[in-house]
Design a protein that fits this description.
Belongs to the iron/ascorbate-dependent oxidoreductase family. Keywords: Iron, Metal-binding, Oxidoreductase. Residues 192-294 form the Fe2OG dioxygenase domain. The structure is a single chain. This protein is α+β, with helices and mostly antiparallel strands. 33% of the residues lie in helices and 20% in strands. The chain has a single domain (26-333), classed as Sandwich (Jelly Rolls), CATH 2.60.120. The strands form 3 sheets. The protein has an 8-stranded mixed beta sheet. It has a 5-stranded mixed beta sheet with strand order 1-10-9-12-7, with no helix packed on it. It has a two-stranded antiparallel sheet with strand order 14-15. A hairpin with a 2-residue loop joins strand 9 and strand 10 (243-246). The chain is globular, with a radius of gyration of 20 Å.
């Protein structure tokens, strides 16, 4: 099967890795996935109204979901359907560009990536492509080339997601006894440290009943919070009670998940859980993720003592993740810093 011109040569690299690893060690827990409709769904209107009881109830739901699931969906989040639709249209147009152009012309701060260059086995290979853009670059006209209409949409989108992330982070930090202002001053989260990631998961002709291909390999996020907008194709899975659970798409909802840094910062009150995306044999999938990250020199300890983790900076954490990924073909994460 010949892939369309816009798609990267994922099949070529995947098959090469497969041939080098004849005894493929399948990520067994992904073979059985229970579709579960009870992923917490939280109405954020409760945080912005005048009713003190509703605000407390909504905050309690966010804290509980962050502690028990590490994942939840939010509706009435303040991001307009118009903006989400515009973002999706611009994203599709961008990814429909020829692969040769996406990979060579320096679009979006030269942030294009695809597949998994460090993968040593098929289980560590991601059947996807992405632009991983620092927020400091989304307003730079030089990043967009002929995709000039994307700039205005991406700037507005980044601002909207930043508001949602700050709202949720404010609830979580307040529960830990800190104000959002204290939190931001201590760890330096602002527009100069955060990222947007535009994802495309091309249809995977190698998918079959016997062959499992990851659109995005199972992992935890190396940030404080992630805010995700996905399309209706599905494929996102998360680990709950040692089972993989498929997340049913909700066109009205954004998905929020806790990252490694909030788990460490909260001393394991909040959970950063493993999640990934399964490839689809027939249909491409799109999503956009906003990552709430600190400055590289921010010290990530625990806000309560005794701490379960040694103190580390965000730069040290990222470097350790990169080292493990290069050496092992996968991320190890927080366990590297546990006392």
């Amino acid at each position: 099967m010949v892939l369309v011109e816009s798609s990267p040569p994922l099949a070529r690299d995947y098959i090469k890795i497969l041939q080098q690893c004849p005894k493929k060690t399948t990520y067994e827990s992904t073979r059985v996935c229970e579709t579960f409709d009870a992923l917490p769904l939280i109405d954020l209107r409760g945080l912005t109204g005048d009713d003190e009881g509703e605000r407390a109830k909504c905050a309690s739901e966010i804290v509980r979901a962050s502690s028990e699931w590490g994942f939840f969906q939010v509706v009435n989040h303040g991001v307009s359907p118009r903006l989400l639709s515009q973002m999706r249209r611009e994203q599709i147009e961008l990814f429909n560009a020829p692969f040769s152009r996406k990979s060579t012309c320096g679009l979006l701060n030269n942030s294009y990536r695809w597949g998994s260059p460090t993968a040593a086995s098929p289980d560590n290979f991601s059947w996807s492509e992405a632009f991983h853009v620092p927020l400091t670059k989304v307003s730079d006209p030089a990043c967009y080339g002929e995709f000039s209409s994307l700039r205005e949409v991406l700037v507005e989108y980044a601002g909207a997601m930043q508001k949602v992330a700050r709202m949720v982070a404010g609830v979580l930090t307040t529960n830990l006894g800190q104000s959002i202002q204290e939190f931001e001053e201590m760890i330096g989260c602002d527009e100069s440290t955060c990222y947007l990631r535009l994802n495309r998961y091309p249809a995977c002709p190698l998918m079959s009943g016997a062959e499992i291909v990851h659109g995005l390999v199972p992992h935890t996020d190396s940030d404080f919070l992630t805010i995700l907008h996905q399309d209706q194709v599905g494929g996102l899975q998360l680990m709950k009670d040692n089972k993989w659970i498929a997340v049913n798409p909700n066109k009205h909802a954004l998905i929020v998940n806790i990252g490694d840094l909030f788990q460490a910062w909260s001393n394991d009150v909040y959970k950063s859980v493993e999640h990934g995306v399964m490839a689809n044999a027939k249909t491409e999938r799109f999503s956009v993720a906003y990552f709430l990250c600190p400055s590289h020199d921010s010290l990530i300890g625990s806000c309560k003592q005794p701490s379960l983790y040694t103190d580390f900076t965000f730069a040290e954490y990222r470097n350790r993740v990169k080292h493990d990924s290069k050496l092992l073909g996968r991320k190890v994460g927080l366990s590297r810093f546990r006392r």
